[in-house]
Amino acid sequence: MSSALPGYEQAAAMVASHAARLVRLRPPLAVERVALPAAPGRVLARPLRADCDQPPFTRSTRDGFACRAAEASAHGFLPVVGATRAGDAPPGALPRGSAWEIMTGAPVPADADAVVMIEHVETSGEGVRLLPARKIASGDNVVAQGAQAHAGDELLPPGTAITFAQIALAAACGSSTLDVYRRPRVAVLATGDELVAVEAVPSPGQIRNSNAPMLAVLVAAAGGEPWVLPTAADNAQALNDALAEAAQADMMLISGGVSAGKFDLVEPALTRMGAKFHFTGVRIQPGKPLVFGEIPTGSSRGSQYEHGTKCFFGLPGNPVSSAVTFLLFGAPVVAALAGRLDGGPRFALARLAKTTDRHAKPGLTRFLPASCTFGGAPGEVPEVELVPWQGSGDLAALARSNCFLMIPEEKASLAEGEMVRILLF
Ligand code: AMP
Ligand code: MG
């Protein structure tokens, strides 16, 4: 009965609270040291600290002339008594009533408190002067030593997901390696008698297993280490064996076999393993049959149930359903288990370019493949439009989209010009 199923928000809240509990109960994550080029996608395990002041010396942000702003503001000519380029050692003090030629990135002489841009001076035999139309104030075009950070400051906390910006910061601080958490191993188990390997030529009635490679990439992007298992057939014995293997991982993603069909045998197989189901469906479309729960593991079987469980998602097999449900619910759990501070789904607002034509009976929150244009004119709001699709098996439509348009459950459709929510991927 779909009315008994949680809605999107409720299911998301349930997933978040169970993820937080799983993180609380599990032992601390192991830490490993990786070289910077291997660090993107990993999660920082120890704080990154500034090894020295940032910037390490008071630095000019322009090519021009270091001066005392009060003196330059009189617009008289100041003799140029020295020059410093990037890489030169910091010069001594600036003599009173003078200017100092300086390049971008070069240390500013002591006692100079501003840099006049080269474009804003007039040069003569007597020196340089600030053009009468221009003004200069103390602090203009210089960044003081330590303005960004002081030696020893925590620049990044543990739990920070590492991308290009954190790599650059680490490099600036002299760290050629970073301490990161061991990634949680996430089993990816595709089920279905109709599935063949990517390399195989499907016989009539068969299709290639596209979910396993897709989910592996999504797991890695969320911060997990994907572990793709051999496809399991739709029978009890095969599922028992495959799930027993998958339970060796830190978390399980099972694709297919969770609908109400005669050969949807994943739930019974999980039940045989002692699974506790948090929900067995969500009022969303696509992805309604999504299953979320935990199985007891190892010594925790029976009485110590709470203290040794592994969570699983049974994702509906249709590829778009698998992608949506993983992004909405699976990725935040992977991120939490990976130790990330920021793991939630990434929603944004955009203007709907075209009224949605697929009217639906309200009651399900819909997440439909859509294309959002971000590169508009300055100040323009991103514009989003549905991508035509043939339903949740339409991988070509998914591959032409860059987000899912969220249609709230109380709406049959959304109108052109409305500000709408999109789930980015
Ligand atoms: P199921 O959830 O098992 O009922 O499958 C729903 C639909 O998704 C069926 O059309 C399946 O053939 C398809 N499907 C299931 N698993 C996969 C997979 N791993 N890759 C691609 N399509 C799949
Ligand atoms: Mg199936």
List keywords for this structure.
about 425 residues; alpha/beta; six-stranded mixed sheet; five-stranded mixed beta barrel; 26 strands; about 25% strand; binds adenosine monophosphate; binds magnesium ion
Description:
The protein is of the alpha/beta class and 425 residues long. It is 20% helix and 26% strand. It has helices at residues 8-25, 69-72, 164-172, 211-222, 236-246, 266-272, 319-337, 395-399, and strands at residues 31-35, 48-49, 59-60, 64-67, 80-84, 99-102, 114-117, 121-124, 127-130, 142-143, 154-156, 177-181, 185-190, 195-196, 207-208, 225-228, 251-255, 276-279, 284-285, 291-296, 309-315, 347-352, 365-373, 383-386, 403-407, 419-424. The strands form eight sheets. Strands 16-13-17-21-20-18 form a six-stranded mixed beta sheet, sandwiched between helices. The chain has a five-stranded mixed barrel with strand order 22-24-23-25-26. A hairpin with a 2-residue loop joins strand 8 (121-124) and strand 9 (127-130). Helix 1 (8-25) runs parallel beside helix 7 (319-337). The two termini are 31 Å apart. Residues 300-305 have low confidence and may be disordered. Adenosine monophosphate binds at residues 190, 192, 194-195, 207, 209-212, 255-259, 261, 264, 316-319, 393. Residues 190, 192, 194-195, 207, 209-212, 255-259, 261, 264, 316-319, 393 line the site of adenosine monophosphate.
